[in-house]
Design goal:
By secondary structure, the protein is an alpha+beta fold. The chain is built from 8 helices and 24 strands. The strands form 2 sheets. Strands 2, 3, 4, 6, 9, 10, 11, 12, 13, 14, 20, 23 and 24 form a 13-stranded mixed beta sheet that branches. Strands 1, 5, 7, 8, 15, 16, 17, 18, 19, 21 and 22 form an 11-stranded antiparallel beta sheet that branches.
Length: 420
């Protein structure tokens, strides 16, 4: 199912111009209120606003429909790109549902995109049949902090969710599957509508090594790159296996060593790495899969991490979105075997994930792009924010420990929307 604006099939092709500009300062400071688009890490990446074209798609065919629509837009577009870097020219932002049903997903082509990579900053303007002059890039009025924020459990209480984890362990022990990722939600309510720019700024400041994103109401700071395609090179960062930080450096180093030796976490991580490598292999002529993970240190938690890399052999066919679709859902957000885990999630998780744990990111007209996994994320609608967190469950999982892990994973977004 697709719904597109009047700007799509019958309208004039998109006209695009990219020019280099002087550094305007922090990109987040340029965003107007409303529904901005964001993909940033360490101050670099893309931000955008306005809507030159939009695709809303749903169901099991959402990736194929999005790919077809995007290729049509790219083939018809009139592009003048004076910069010629990945992320210049025609660009879309996207966010895809985790599950096939209902599968509500979106691609957005902004009217304005501002990008930065290294010492190069550019602005892209996109319009129907013509484009406006590049806007003056200056900081906008800063967002107001949310006030009166309260939190309540979402679909399940902590005790109820622990029982679902116990049921998952029972099924794993019985041999139904090897691993399943279970998520839970938390609902926040503020006195007034939440300006998404506030939590985006807080997340970018406090978690600079993650990718801070916002697409169509879904925002967050994901540490996990599902796939990056850039001029033939494909990379994917796999995270699975987590331990909470204490804030004491010596204690945290000891915990990192414990994580690196944990048979439960290493088992969970191995499933995730194997699923990514198997999904990428058909598209790559060569691949590098490290034998052992490293420990990724974030302000609130530490993860076992592995960077998988390959050289794509079918770059004319396999766009970054195609690769993301092939990888989704990896064992890091679904489980092993994939189809069994998806069925178990649908049966016992007790909520609709929406676009949580689905691919989120951007793609340009050449098919290069970056798609992360929408983790450490939330959906904002008016004065309500729905937060998500998930944990990998294996045979040795303890429900109480998994709940504590989920609580730790709520912390980044919970703090960001608390007005602190």
């Amino acid at each position: 199912m697709t719904t597109v604006p009047t700007s799509s099939h019958e309208a004039s092709p998109l006209v695009v111009r990219t020019v280099a500009v002087h550094d305007p300062g922090p990109l987040l400071a340029l965003l107007p209120s409303g529904d901005p688009l964001t993909w940033l890490r360490r101050g670099e990446g893309l931000v955008g606003w306005g809507q030159a074209a939009v695709l809303r798609t749903a169901g099991a065919d959402r990736f194929e429909e999005a790919r077809s629509w995007w290729l049509d837009q790219a083939r018809a577009a009139v592009v003048r790109d004076e910069v010629g870097r990945p992320g210049t020219g025609l660009v879309c932002f996207g966010s895809f549902a985790f599950a096939d049903d209902p599968g509500d997903s979106v691609l957005v082509v902004p009217e304005v995109v501002v990008g930065r990579r290294g010492d190069t900053t550019w602005v892209t303007t996109i319009g129907q049949g013509g484009i406006a002059a590049a806007p003056e890039l200056a900081p906008t009025d800063p967002p107001a902090a949310p006030e009166g924020v309260t939190f309540v459990d979402g679909a399940l209480s902590g005790t109820e969710w622990e029982s679902r984890v116990a049921e998952a362990v029972r099924r794993i022990t019985a041999g139904d599957l090897e691993k399943v990722v279970l998520a839970r939600d938390l609902l926040a309510t503020a006195d007034e509508d939440v300006d998404v720019r506030w939590p985006l700024n807080r997340l970018a400041e406090q978690y600079p090594t993650t990718w801070t994103f916002h697409v169509d109401g879904l925002f967050g700071a994901t540490p996990e790159m599902l796939v990056r395609r850039e001029r033939g090179l494909v990379t994917s960062r796999v995270l699975a296996g987590t331990i909470r930080r204490t804030g004491d450096d010596e204690r945290d180093l000891a915990l990192a060593a414990t994580l690196a030796r944990s048979s439960k976490d290493l088992e969970e991580h191995e499933y995730a790495v194997r699923s990514v490598a198997d999904a990428l292999a058909p598209h790559c002529t060569s691949m590098n899969v490290p034998e052992a993970p490293f420990v990724l240190h974030l302000p609130n938690v530490m993860h076992l991490a592995t960077d998988v890399a390959g050289v794509v052999h079918d770059g004319e066919v396999a766009t970054a979105l195609d690769l993301a679709a092939a990888l989704h859902p990896s064992a890091a957000v679904g489980g092993t075997p994939t189809e069994v885990a998806k069925r178990v999630i649908a049966e016992i998780e007790g909520m609709d994930r929406g676009r949580y744990a689905g691919p989120v990111g951007w793609m340009d007209a050449s098919g290069d792009g970056e798609w992360g996994i929408a983790l450490r994320s939330a959906e904002v609608a008016g004065n309500t924010v729905r937060l998500f967190a998930g944990c990998g469950v294996v045979a040795s999982s303890d429900p109480e420990a998994e709940l504590a892990e989920a609580q730790a994973k709520f912390v980044p977004v919970r703090d960001a929307v608390s007005g602190i």
